[in-house]
Each structure stands twice: as C-alpha cells, then as structure tokens.
Amino acid sequence: MDVHSNYSDFFEGTEKLLEVWFCRTDGKDDNCDLRKISREQWESLLQEVKCVIISFKRSEHLDSYVLSESSMFVSKRCFILKTCGSTTLLNAVTPLLYIVKMTTGFNFVQDIFYSRKNFMRPELQNKPHTSFEDEIESLEGIFEDGAAYCMGRINSDCWYLYTLNTPLGLHGNPVADQTLEVIMQDLDQNVMSIFTQEGSSSARDATQKSGIDQIYPGAMLDEYLFDPCGYSVNGILKGRYYFTIHITPEPHCSYVSFETNAPQDNYHDLVNTLLKMFLPGKFVMTLFANKLSVAAKGMKESCNTEFHSYNRKELQVCRFNAYDLTYALFAKAPS
Amino acid sequence: MDVHSNYSDFFEGTEKLLEVWFCRTDGKDDNCDLRKISREQWESLLQEVKCVIISFKRSEHLDSYVLSESSMFVSKRCFILKTCGSTTLLNAVTPLLYIVKMTTGFNFVQDIFYSRKNFMRPELQNKPHTSFEDEIESLEGIFEDGAAYCMGRINSDCWYLYTLNTPLGLHGNPVADQTLEVIMQDLDQNVMSIFTQEGSSSARDATQKSGIDQIYPGAMLDEYLFDPCGYSVNGILKGRYYFTIHITPEPHCSYVSFETNAPQDNYHDLVNTLLKMFLPGKFVMTLFANKLSVAAKGMKESCNTEFHSYNRKELQVCRFNAYDLTYALFAKAPS
After folding, report:
1. What residues correspond to the site Cleavage (non-hydrolytic) (chains A, B) (predicted)?
2. Beta carbons of B146 and A155 less than 8 Å apart
3. Cβ separation of A318 and B315 shorter than 8 Å?
4. Contact at 8 Å (CB) between B257 and B183?
5. A277-304: per-residue pLDDT in tens?
6. Residue ranges, chain B, pLDDT below 50
7. What is the largest CA-CA distance in chain A?
8. Which of A21, A136, A309, B265 is the most exposed place for a label (fewest CB within 10 A)?
9. Cis link prior to B280 (omega < 30° from 0)?
10. How far is A191 from chain B (nearest CA, A)?
11. Burial state string for A3-28 with b = 16 or more CB within 10 A and e = fewer than 16
C-alpha cells in the first residue's frame, strides 16, 4: 500500500482510535466471541473506513490485523480499531454493531472509547471527522448519553474523547483494564530515516535497527514498511495484551504513536525507552486504568513525573465511573 | 434596573467572569494601584459591556461595585468583572488595558482568567460571546500564547477557561491566591421566591430570610433586589477578600452563583451551607489555588468529597504553571 506516496507530501499520522467492549445483559457470555466474525465481514466493515487488511496474526486470546492505515485488534469481548490518514473510522460503528449482533452472541455495548489527538490539518478530513463536534454528532446518532471531553488546550495541542462512561461491572464480571498511549511529534530525522525504503532493507531490518524488537522481548511481531516510507508494527503479548506502533517519518509531519494494554504498575521506564528511541520534540501521554488495574495505583508515578530533558506543559486528571484517566503533554526543554 | 422584566421571560443567569492581574516588569509597584481609576473611567468601560454601576462600597483594600448585571471588584493589582445576561464582557478588555496603562503605573498583564459555564441559550448571546471559539478568537486578538480549556462534558454541562498560564512569581513577589466558585442550577422554588419583590420587602429582607447574612458574619454587605425578581450581593471581607452571590429565580432558568477569594484550607462546610440554603438540583464547583495558598493543600478534601444527597458526576483536576484547578459536577441523587 502506498499511503506515503512522496516524502514531501503531507500525511496525517494522527490516528482515530475506537475501542468497544461488548457483553450480554444476562451475563452469560461463555459462548460469545468477537472472533467468530469472519475475515470477509471485517473486510466489508473496513471498506466503510477506506482501508484494507494487509497482514494478520493470531494468538490464543487475540487476533491482530495490520491495516493499510494502522491496526485492528479483536479479542473475545473487545474490539480495537485505529486508523490514520483521511480514513472514516466512525463509519464502521453502525456496521460493527450489526455484525456483532448477528454473529457473536453479544447483545449489548458495554462501553466505547473514541479518541484522537487534534489533527495537524483538519481541513483534509472527510465527514464525520471534519471536527470533534461533527464526530460527537455522528456518535450521538448511535449512542445515548455519551460524554465528550477535550483534554489539554482547545486552541493548541489537545486530545478528544467520547465515552459512554459506563459504571464498572455493569452486566458481567469486571476485568482489570488499562491503556497507555504515547503520541510523539517533531521527531529526530536520523531516527525517522530508518522507517523509509532507503533507510532499511526490510520491515524486520527497521524493527531491529530502531530497537523496537527490544521493547517487549518475546512478543510476536507483525511489522510492515511502506513504500517509500512509513512503518507499522503489531506486537502480540501474552494473554489478550498487545502493543502497536505507527510511524509517519516525513520531516514536516513526523508522528509516532505507541499504544499498549499490557498492565504495569508504573510506565515511566517504558516511556523513557520510547523517548530515547524516537527523540520527539513533544509528546502526549494518556493513561486509562480502571479500579481493578495495577496501573491505577501507579498512575501518579507514570504521568505526574519528570522525563529527562523534557518539561511538562500540561497535566489533567479525569475521574470517570469506571476509569481514571491522566493526560499529560511534555515538550523538549530548551538546551 | 429591570433586567428581569417578567417571571416567564428567559434570563441567562450564567455569568462571564474575567479576572486580570497587573504588575510592573521592574517589580517596583509601590505607587501603582488599579483604584486610581476614576468612576467616570469605569462607567465608560462598562458602556462597552452594556451594563451600569448601581451601587458602590469600599474598604481599605477593596472597591466593590454592584452592577445592573452582576459585579465588579477592584483591588491594588487585581480586577474582577462578572456579568450575566447578554452583556459583552470581553469588549471591556482592550479599554481596560488602555485605562490601566494610562492611569495606574502598571505596565504588564501578569495573568488573566476568563471563564464561564456553558450558556443555557447560547443563541441569545452577542458577539464575541456567540461561542467559546469566538471568545478565544477575541482574546487571541489581544493576548499571545493563551491557553483555552473545557472542563467537563463538551456536549453537556461544562465550564470554559482561557488563561495566560503565567509561571508563579513572574515580575514581583507572588502572593497566595485562591478562588472558589459554586454555580447552582435547577433550584428550589420556595427558596427562589425569596428573591422576588413579592417574596421580600427589601434586599436586606431577602438577605436575612435566606440566611445569606450568616455565611460570613461581619462582612460588609451591599445587596440589591431587582424588580420583579433577581438578587445580587457583594460582601467585603477583611483584607482584599470578597464574596458575591447572584440569583436568577425564574423557575425555567433558575441560577445561583457564589464566588469568593477568601482563603480556607477546606471549603466543604461552606459548600454544604450553600447547598442547604439554595437546594440546587445540580451544581458545578471550581477551585483555583496557587502554590502559596492554604486552599491548595485541602483541594482534595474540598472537591473530591461527598455532599449529602448529591452524586458526583464529574471530577477533573488540571495543573497549571502557577495554579491547581479542580472542576466537579454534582447532581441530586434520586430520592
């Protein structure tokens, strides 16, 4: 796939991210599984988003898809779709609910989380992604009583979230859950050159040169190097845990995102590893953790902390019914 | 002043609130004072906002004005203007900066805080208050690098803030500072009937019947009962401290705001007193405290707390350069 057609073209690396949890209202979900959904069904759903599957790997608990624009993960109860560029992710929601109802045995949307950073060039997006207000309107056509937030500065770097804000444990046993996202911009161009066809001989070569293979040693990796540049990797960890990295290396719009749902009581060292690997000029970190998560206890240490040679510009904490969320923005200190 | 012309008319009680701190870049502000500004200068400034002064009182440290739409407070370095209805508060900013420069000896805006809750009927507002985006644009025409935030739900109850987010102690000695605001809606109609010409024989009568005179015993009060309904009170406390309450009693748009800059290490009991006095269906509380304030230590106890017969719907904490801010929304628990 030629999503990055030219070094000088603009590419919107900023992803739209959708996470949907399903359940049964009677709690009896033993025979329910989102992985009953067929490849053909996913392909038809992704047509609405304007992207395609380019690679697939699975473990006992998790199906992982690398897409022409970012990634998709499917486990028993949880669907995650992350797409960049000018894809129309929210067009997938109504077909998703229909396919899940017809195929999986689940009969209820337990919670959804739709989030993204502010776009670099919002005027290049397609409906309903033309503004967060338009995205809210689209979601309010599907869900009732959703809550929409803007973390950070409305008039600068910020991060939008729409969630149903469901109480913990509605319909069925609650499970520990956490998501860390690190969104890096203004990256080091020597590092970025690794993620081009000129800079690396293969996707695996880029993975090894950059050190991405050392972040979670033992992870099952599925990586892709785009032509002429751009890189994605899905990492399947034990259980239903994953990590994923997406890289837009072009100098005028460089963007790297890291995301994982792997539980840790403190993400400080992990984030530090990412910063040393990619050398961003600025980065946003967001951390969700529900009350059962080990990450909830260490939230303060993970986000309300110092990172060497970075200044914290923003810190916001938001308490939801089931989750605590921390948003922080850091920028390189003047040297 | 007949701002509440009829019980059945809609009135936007939701205030716009502006707080501006001034300083001298050389730190030598001994001879500087905002209270050098004359009554005539204030009156001309308020013409831009479309409101007028209806009463004035002063103490050694504070000048207090009751306005046709809400209140104004002036101390040595700090200017506070709060106006409701369809007033155009932000039109005062440019004239204010001019008058201060010409009259007071101050030569620098240390910080500004412009805030408001979401309007009940935004379509009735005049430019630049037609949306928060329009307000930001107006402020960005005057200030550089201001930060704009939305606390709470963008698509429901929320509270907007624009601030310069200045580091503590830039130009001159920093002073302890804190502001508590409690914005109450859907109020008890028996209580609200006190704040009408039918329900009380005078402004003082309304103050005493409601118990407002007992909130800060010993405060110098300046109260006003509008015709046919509506009530404002400014309370001058010791030092440069004040409290102010504004009441729109009409059943379909009832609104009561309380604000004070008086330092307390814990505002829980004060808020509880207000809740028992006014019996709101829902309320927002916001608390700013800088690092020198006693209120910073008790922030958690003030906001992240329970109030009898209310459920907390939202809690957000925001760390600025000089201030910590907590935003919380509470709603009456179903009985």
Report:
1. 69-70
2. yes
3. yes
4. yes
5. 999 999 999 999 999 999 988 777 766 6
6. 1-2
7. 59
8. A309
9. no
10. 31
11. bbeeeeeebbbbbbbbbbbbbbeeee
Tally C-beta pairs within 8 A across A and B: 52
Identity of the residue in A136, A304, A317 whose CB atom sits nearest the CB atom of B316 = A317
Write the single-letter amino acid at A333: A
**Residue A134: its H or E element:** helix A132-140
Q: What are the residues facing B319 on neighbouring strands?
A: A315, B324
Least CB–CB distance from A150: residue in B150, B317, B319? B150
Q: Are A291 and A297 in contact (CB under 8 A)?
A: no
Compute the residue count for chain A: 335
d(CA A74, CA A63): 5
* Average pLDDT rounded to a whole number, residues A1-9: 55
Tell me the percentage of chain A whose pLDDT exceeds 70: 96
Q: Report the C-alpha gap between B84 and B11 in whole angstroms.
A: 9
Q: Which amino acid is at A103?
A: T
Pair B58, B64: CB distance under 8 Å: yes
Backbone angles phi, psi at B173, to 5 degrees: -75, 130
Helix, strand, or coil (residue B244): strand
DSSP A333: P
Tokens in use for A83?
Answer: 């797409």
3-class SS string, B209-239:
HHCHHHCCCCCEEEEEECCCECEEEEEECCC
pLDDT tens digits for B279-332?
999 999 999 999 999 998 877 776 777 899 999 999 999 999 999 999 999 999
What is the ipTM score, two decimals? 0.93
- The mean pLDDT of A142-158, rounded to a whole number, is 96
Per-residue model confidence as pLDDT tens digits over A25-73: 998 999 999 999 999 999 999 999 999 999 999 999 999 999 999 999 9
Which SS3 state, helix, strand or coil, does residue B63 take? Answer: strand
Neighbours of B164 (CB within 10 A): 21
* Interhelix angle A93-103/A39-49, nearest 10 degrees: 160
Residues of chain A neighbouring B147 (CB-CB closer than 8 A): 153, 155-156
Encode pLDDT of B13-26 as tens digits: 999 999 999 999 99
Domains of chain A in start order, with CATH, are: 16-332 (3.60.90.10)
How many residues in chain B? 335
Q: State how far Cα A46 lies from the chain centre.
A: 16
